[in-house]
């Protein structure tokens, strides 16, 4: 299949399951109508985060009468298909939309997104008001294609009751590999089918494996080519595999969401997942803690992340709409505490650095601690398709069906073949 056919196909492997966890639903809806210049705004927030964004939009519309933002929520699993239809002229395109960080390159390289640099300068949106990491994610070849809403990195959840029972301090989760493995062993009791860290073999390894890879100082792509089987990659996969085979802190052959089920049952002491899991833990009444991901790699602290960003289709040229979009984005930067209630950490400094209520939250400040060293998908078009062989082979290695080095060698070959098509 030629690359052009891949453009924006549905969801990438990296965000397909994770973002679905955060935004899954079959409903679509829009915000209340009103007077003023209409700005059509598309977003994939069809889960519990949808009402949060609706509240922000409705509050903005009530705060002034010059513009009316019309929020239209498109179900997550249809979102990029719908976006592609709009860009191909088969559906009316919005004036403003949400785009995930790992999708930006797909669309920017095809000149489908507006360079927002001029709009930003004219209308007072400031780079200094946002996390440098989040802002930089939208900068491609000297052009600014997005304004960040949030960063959602991998984070660590742990069961405080299990920590207490194992004689561990529930307020001192592990911060490095040595502590992590030692704690996991103390928390494991095979006779009770209780484990320190249940190793997932599928999702969310699209976040876990790259995190350890980056912590080893590795690069997923190097000189424009897949670099999965580098020493840093092999070490990362061997470490994760050894947690099952050598350290025995996890059961083998964990199926999709098996680690989540065991965490909910109080049988999995530590879990690496995304901020979108908060609501599920809260509803279950688990006595859990949240912490930055320990440095499980050998070189540096790092964490794999994705993010939600505001983008403008290149076709939008109406000066009134552009001024309205900028006005709305400035409002959002100062009023995303509502968004934080969904478990996310907004990328606006006015919230994560300066808001006292935000700092009192349990999870969200822990997420924000990881902003400075968060890393995103490689700056390459169609990362979802190029990474599919990687995570298929990671799955086989973690199931014990392939040696980590062999698995990553095979992943590299398959990815290279895809890039040549």
Walkthrough of the structure:
This protein is α/β, with parallel strands linked by helices. The chain has two domains: 3-153 and 306-375, D-Maltodextrin-Binding Protein, domain 2 (3-Layer(aba) Sandwich); 155-304 and 380-420, 3-Layer(aba) Sandwich (D-Maltodextrin-Binding Protein, domain 2). It is 43% helix and 16% strand. It has 20 helices and 16 strands. The strands form four sheets. Strands 1, 2, 3, 4, 7, 14, 15 and 16 form an eight-stranded mixed β-sheet that branches. The chain has a four-stranded mixed β-sheet with strand order 9-12-8-13. The protein has a two-stranded antiparallel sheet with strand order 5-6. α10 (205-215) packs across α11 and α19 (383-398) runs antiparallel to α20.
Features:
single chain, 421 residues, alpha/beta, D-Maltodextrin-Binding Protein, domain 2, 2 domains, 8-stranded mixed β-sheet, 20 helices, 16 strands, disordered N terminus
Quaternary structure state of the chains depicted: single chain
The low-confidence parts are 1-32
What is the percentage of strand-forming residues? 15-25%
CATH architecture of the largest domain: 3-Layer(aba) Sandwich
Globular, elongated, flat, extended or rod-shaped: what is the shape? globular
User: Could you tell me the mean pLDDT?
Assistant: 91
Count of discrete alpha- or pi-helical segments spanning 4 or more residues: 20
